[in-house]
């Protein structure tokens, strides 16, 4: 379903657009994803809406014999893409799971701001973005997914999330259509 409205109090959640993730070999170039995310973040800030920047600095505890790579523990890996123009008003969430809600205070933070709608974008579509969107939907947020501001490690995983999962979790849109709603 296409974006019907953008709430005045919506929050943008930018998933894992950090140096270590955007440098991974994704199926489509990360540069355009970062550019679109940066434009949307600027527009959200200028309109007085909330921006949440999410990065990852560890993997979930438990078995790792399934081929789950370990996350490097250096500051350069975790640093946000400079194009995002991190602002003092941005809320930063450092996660240790795929999604941004589990084991973080993101839900409490958004509820404290009376946010009911979240706009989600980032890398990787089928991992961090989808996990965050699923949890947001289960928590009762109105979810909007900016499908051309996402990339994945695998093209088929990206397409599956966009075509089969996201329409069940919320509304989908493009960066251009979203920016037009912000005005």
UniProtKB/TrEMBL annotation:
Record carries keyword Hydrolase: yes
Assigned keywords, A-Z: Hydrolase
Matches recorded under CDD domains: cysteine_hydrolases
InterPro entries in the record: Isochorismatase-like_dom, Isochorismatase-like_hydrls, Isochorismatase-like_sf
Domain Isochorismatase-like: 10-176
Gene Ontology molecular function terms on file: hydrolase activity
Gene3D superfamilies: Isochorismatase-like
Keyword Hydrolase belongs to the record: yes
PANTHER family assigned to the protein according to its UniProt record, in alphabetical order: ISOCHORISMATASE FAMILY PROTEIN YECD, PEROXYUREIDOACRYLATE/UREIDOACRYLATE AMIDOHYDROLASE-RELATED
Protein name (Swiss-Prot/TrEMBL): Hydrolase
Natural source organism: Luteibacter yeojuensis
